[in-house]
Specification:
Order of helices and strands: EEEHHHEEEEHHHHHHHH
Largest sheet: 7 strands, mixed
Strand order of the largest sheet: 2-1-3-7-6-5-4
Structural class: alpha+beta
Keywords: Cell membrane, Ion transport, Magnesium, Membrane, Transmembrane, Transmembrane helix, Transport
CATH class of one domain: Alpha Beta
CATH superfamily of one domain: CorA soluble domain-like
Radius of gyration: 36 Å
Family: Belongs to the CorA metal ion transporter (MIT) (TC 1.A.35) family.
Oligomer: single chain
Strand content: 5-15%
Membrane topology: Multi-pass membrane protein
Helix content: 55-70%
Subcellular location: Cell membrane; Membrane
Function: Mediates influx of magnesium ions.
Amino acid sequence: MIRVMGITHDHQVRTDIALDDIHNHQNYLWSWVDFSSPTEEEAELLGSFFQFHPLAIEDCLLHVMQRPKIDFYDDNDFLVLHALDPDTLELVEVNLFIGESCLVSFHHRELQEIDVAWESIQKRALNRKMWERGPFTAAYLVIDNLVDQYFPCVYAVEDELDELEKLGGRESIEQLMNQVFDLRSRLLKLRRTIVPMRDLMYHILNSKHIQAQKEAGAYFSDIYDHLLKLSEMVESDREMTADLRDSYLSLNSNRMNGIMKTLTVITSVFMPLTLIAGIYGMNFINMPELHWRYGYFGVLGLMGVLSIWMILSFMRRGWFK
């Protein structure tokens, strides 16, 4: 699907115009063309109608996820951005061509962030100062909405992390460790999304193209600040999951030590008893104690006294603390 928006010289927003009309500079100050899940025929317009650079078109048509970047060409700037699926945290590539009088967005899936930016421009139709900045305004709204969508994903992980921290040791260590590693995996996906976008915004802010437009640079600086905050949140959450992982491992180790201590005490008490029972269970003929009238009770008494003595000895050494 291709949709076209034009901003007239009297700062009116029109969305019912034909694609061929966007080059009519007498009627339109600048325009925005959005390619959403385009067909092959529609995608060919990038070269045949807009005449973008072949390398940029190749980047758009490739279904291999690329790292966020910006390329500067003679007539336009080409950006590769990442949207984030809030349910699966999978990346969706968004491509932007920013020209002097036209913005072209290209993405293989319908995205709510693009729709929000599209509607936002229509709602701000009377803000003339904003529209005078040209396609950079729409580009800023798109990138800002893409970055804003990262926040709910990070907040969702933080909420689960807080719940996991409150559970303490009420669940099994195996379940807790599985949840911790699941959170670390999701945080890694977020990090792989946020950090490259942060680096891209830093590169844009320090490029000569943006420095020439100070007002546009201020808007992109705001996006960069959001990405810095997001990256700090992700790193903080990763450190917290590492601390939880270490705590659960220590807790599990302590539990295992307690179990081993209990088994050691039981084994230590019964080893001499087993030795005594084994000796008198051999049934040799020349064993004087076998013919003793009180031999059975004597051996039981010896076992009892020996057990009590060993238990008291272990208690004095602090084995039961």
